[in-house]
Amino acid sequence: MQISNVILLTLQILLVCSDHNLPSKSVKIDPNTVFVLFGTRHGNRNPGQYLPENPRTWGFEGFNELTSVGKRQSYGLGTELRKFIGNLTSNNYNASQVSYYSSSANRCQMTLQTVLAGLHPPETWGDWNTAVLDHWSPVPYSINDQLLRMYSVSECTQSNVVWKPIDNDQLPHLKQLLTEKRQLLNYFQANTGWNMSNLGNAADLADNLIEINLYNATLPAWITKPTINYTPQQIESEIMSFAEVHQIACADYAPCRNLMAGYWLTDILSKLHKASNNSDQKVAGYASHTEITLSVMKLLGITKDELTTSAGFVVELRKLPYPSIRLLNHDPNPIDSHVIYPATLVDALEARKDSNGFINLTVFENYVKPAEDYSNWKKACGIAAPTSSASSSFLKTAVLNATILSYVMGRR
Ligand SMILES: *[C@@H]1O[C@H](CO)[C@@H](O)[C@H](O)[C@H]1NC(C)=O
Ligand SMILES: *[C@@H]1O[C@H](CO)[C@@H](O)[C@H](O)[C@H]1NC(C)=O
Ligand SMILES: *[C@@H]1O[C@H](CO)[C@@H](O)[C@H](O)[C@H]1NC(C)=O
Ligand SMILES: *[C@@H]1O[C@H](CO)[C@@H](O)[C@H](O)[C@H]1NC(C)=O
Ligand SMILES: *[C@@H]1O[C@H](CO)[C@@H](O)[C@H](O)[C@H]1NC(C)=O
Ligand SMILES: *[C@@H]1O[C@H](CO)[C@@H](O)[C@H](O)[C@H]1NC(C)=O
Ligand SMILES: *[C@@H]1O[C@H](CO)[C@@H](O)[C@H](O)[C@H]1NC(C)=O
Fold it and tell me: Is this model's pTM higher than 0.85 or not?
């Protein structure tokens, strides 16, 4: 292999898989685990806008849609989850034992569907078309944007408030990036024609680079032969540093983190509580977006700064020897194979792990219980019950707001 190929391959691996030190093997489920819950970011998707490339050899699914790589990552997650849970629930879908939830976004629904294809390959009485679809049977799920995509819940006006300093790059860290990286951003702007005063456009550039590398397409000459004082490798890694910059900013900013994921956190706690008491529930799973999945992971006490496509978390619940939970991460490595491994927790929880990595459920609940009551998402969203005379104009504004929101927020 030529040196240039080695560099290219290394770069590709770095670009696809931001976690460089993934364990090679998944942990085993605890013999006493009675319930498993997982959350995941959608798989690899197209950017919200394409760099001009003629002809383009990738991205035919459309803006923001799940790609073939995203499907492979999600299927890898599903098959790894099945290996992990073993016979906790049957391969065949059992309506009494499992529940699945997705954001309304196409990429999340398609991710969940592909995960479930890996997790629930039908057998015996579940088989129905072995000639064409031997390993696939439909599995239902609910779409719930209050849980998994609060930023596009049109009535949630508070969402506009918490996103404003992020969308406008007014948070100190984002402002600082705009100043510190001005020369580079100007270079990106001159070569893309995209307004780099908005870091969202730099993030779109990073998303294009990810796809170009994944699909072995040709990078633009302004990256491979830079006309500013950077090496091509430096340019690439500078561009990649803007990937998901707004989504990560949300997870780091308490008002955004809490509003995006507080309601999901209360749902997770309630499911764990129910399962610890008495319940047929064996598995619950959720598919969402970076800012929401990363936020809920932080609220659960997991130490994590970024989230690659199709990555997320797994929670195991034991009733014996005493009610306790274990927090795990899951990551693609980098496309078809997937790995489930112990999460690093905040110090307060890390100190409470037993020798198997489990934490007393009550201790955990007391630690993560939100200060504000997010189980009432309408209240958290600043929604007052509308008076009857105002309700028709409320509806009109809500429709207008939904249109604006879906335009502004479409990329997440
Ligand atoms: C599930 O697998 C475990 C471990 O292999 C085994 O002990 C148990 O009997 C199995 N349970 C069922 C219901 O098949
Ligand atoms: C770029 O965006 C900034 C901030 O949104 C705006 O003030 C500026 O006018 C835009 N520039 C161009 C050339 O559109
Ligand atoms: C890109 O090239 C690599 C290495 O040759 C290969 O493994 C991979 O499948 C290619 N990607 C696509 C989408 O064809
Ligand atoms: C536990 O289950 C019992 C019976 O199923 C029920 O009466 C009780 O309220 C439950 N407790 C909690 C804390 O959910
Ligand atoms: C489905 O789950 C219920 C509740 O746990 C259980 O009683 C039933 O046996 C399961 N059905 C099959 C076919 O495994
Ligand atoms: C779990 O934590 C609760 C609250 O601190 C405590 O009362 C209980 O004894 C603990 N259980 C075990 C088995 O340590
Ligand atoms: C629409 O958005 C505006 C500005 O964010 C907000 O003040 C208003 O309450 C929203 N109305 C509805 C019905 O969501």
Answer: yes
